[in-house]
Design brief:
The protein is mainly alpha-helical and 128 residues long. The chain has four helices and no strands.
Length: 128
């Protein structure tokens, strides 16, 4: 079983799955940062929006994992909205052709994984 990150105390003992989804959120933030760095020809506010959203995802996941019930649902719902926003921005960048598809692919894959994981966790622990 994985150890909880040292600064996060999860609400229940199912930490292996919880650390997995938190790590997935960190991985997504990293992939999105790579996209931001490659998007130098894009407008600064688009890069800034993606940067802020990529930072918010792991924060909201960590907050959601540390609480239960309606609070968890609220954090996960907000994280889900932001992940959808990131997916739309990635789609737009792909359509504009300002970033190579090879760079967008891993981030898009993680967006899909995160949406699936949040939905799964919300159902599993009754946060939704």
């Amino acid at each position: 079983m994985a150890d909880d990150p040292p600064f996060i105390r999860f609400h229940t003992g199912e930490s292996e799955i919880r650390v997995e989804v938190y790590q997935l959120a960190l991985d997504l933030a990293s992939r999105l940062y790579t996209v931001i760095e490659l998007a130098e020809v894009e407008r600064y506010y688009l890069r800034d929006a993606l940067d802020k959203k990529s930072t918010a995802i792991p924060v909201l996941i960590a907050r959601g994992l540390a609480v239960s019930g309606p609070e968890r649902r609220d954090h996960f719902a907000r994280a889900r909205q932001i992940i959808v926003d990131c997916g739309a921005i990635l789609d737009m960048l792909g359509e504009r052709g300002t970033i190579e598809v090879e760079a967008l692919g891993p981030a898009r894959t993680l967006v899909s994984s995160m949406l699936h994981k949040i939905d799964e966790m919300t159902y599993r622990w009754g946060a939704g």
